[in-house]
Amino acid sequence: MKKILLINANFVHNHTLLTRFMIKTMVNPSLVLPYVAASIPSNKYEVKAVNDAYKDIDYNEECDLVGISTATPSAPRAYQIADEFRKRGKTVVLGGIHPTLLPNEAANHADSVVVGEAETTLPRLLNDYKKNQLKKIYYSKEKICPENIPVPNRKVEEIYP
Question: Model pTM?
Answer without folding.
Answer: 0.86
